[in-house]
């Protein structure tokens, strides 16, 4: 089974849960395993609004760094809530109400399945099988910015510079002081 079909199968089995919570999962959703945004090392899922798709579909992405079936299914639940309430609602009132109603807990920006939802997702895994995906290893070269922060030790004036230019020498602050690499906190 392909990953996209697996995500679609899991979503279809969640329809009842959403209906019991008072809403429906939209029919116009496409599912994909792919990098959700320009911050692939941070985002684990994302739902793009149907208004942004030329095909008029919500586009749900699950990070290829994730492969645990229950975890992927819970990410899917989170993204389905965005599609159901509208992506413009963010993680506010409507999102929170539906998240709690279907069994998600924790901070709304990083929800986790509660006990009942975890049991339901395990039952769904028994029906559809495990997520057919082996996770990618994170590419550490993608970590953070390629720019290095340097600061004047005297006045705290700050700029960002590439490693290439730092290899030629550190810049001077407008007050004439030699700037230094900012050390983590």
Tally of helical segments: 6
Low-confidence stretches: none
Task: Please compute the radius of gyration using only Cα atoms.
Answer: 22 Å
CATH H-level superfamily title of the largest domain: Metalloproteases ("zincins"), catalytic domain
Q: Under CATH, the topology of the largest domain is which? A: Zincin-like
Q: Into which percentage range does the β-strand content fall?
A: 15-25%
Neighbour order of strands in the largest sheet: 1-3-2
Structural class: alpha+beta
Which CATH-level-2 architecture of the largest domain? Answer: 2-Layer Sandwich
Number of strands: 8
- Assembly state: single chain
Instruction: Average the pLDDT over all residues and give the rounded result.
Output: 90
Report the end-to-end length measured between terminal Cα atoms. 47 Å
Secondary-structure element series: HHEEEHHEEHEEHE
Which helices and strands appear, and what pairs or packs with what?
Layout (H helix, E strand, L loop, with lengths): L2 H11 L1 H6 L8 E5 L11 E4 L9 E5 L6 H17 L7 H10 L1 E2 L6 E2 L1 H14 L18 E5 L6 E5 H4 L13 E2 L4
Parallel strand pairs: 1-3
Antiparallel strand pairs: 2-3, 4-5, 6-7, 6-8
Helix pairs in contact: 1-5, 3-4, 3-5
Summarize the structure.
With 185 residues, the protein is α+β, with helices and mostly antiparallel strands.
Task: Explain what this protein looks like in three dimensions.
By secondary structure, the chain is α+β, with helices and mostly antiparallel strands. It folds into two domains: 3-128, Zincin-like; 145-181, no CATH class. It has six helices and eight strands. It has helices at residues 3-13, 15-20, 69-85, 93-102, 115-128, 163-166; strands spanning 29-33, 45-48, 58-62, 104-105, 112-113, 147-151, 158-162, 180-181. The strands form three sheets. A three-stranded mixed sheet has the order 1-3-2. A three-stranded antiparallel sheet has the order 7-6-8. The longest helix is centred in the middle third of the chain and has 17 residues, at 69-85. The radius of gyration is 22 Å and the shape is elongated.
């Amino acid at each position: 089974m392909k990953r996209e079909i697996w995500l679609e199968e899991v979503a279809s089995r969640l329809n009842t849960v959403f209906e019991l919570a008072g809403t429906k999962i939209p029919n116009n959703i496409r599912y994909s395993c792919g990098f959700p945004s320009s911050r692939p090392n941070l985002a684990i899922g994302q739902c793009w609004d149907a208004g942004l798709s030329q095909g008029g579909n919500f586009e749900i992405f699950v990070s290829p760094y994730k492969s645990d079936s229950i975890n992927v299914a819970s990410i899917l639940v989170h993204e389905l809530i965005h599609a159901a309430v509208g992506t413009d609602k963010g993680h506010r009132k409507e999102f929170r109400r539906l998240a709690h109603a279907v069994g998600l807990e924790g901070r709304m920006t990083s929800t986790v399945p509660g006990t009942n939802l975890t049991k339901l997702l395990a039952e769904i895994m028994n029906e559809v099988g495990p997520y057919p995906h082996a996770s990618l290893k994170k590419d550490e070269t993608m970590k953070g910015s390629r720019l290095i922060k340097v600061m004047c030790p005297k006045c705290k004036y700050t700029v960002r510079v590439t490693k290439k230019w730092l290899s030629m020498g550190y810049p001077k602050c407008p007050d004439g002081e030699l700037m230094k690499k900012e050390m983590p906190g």
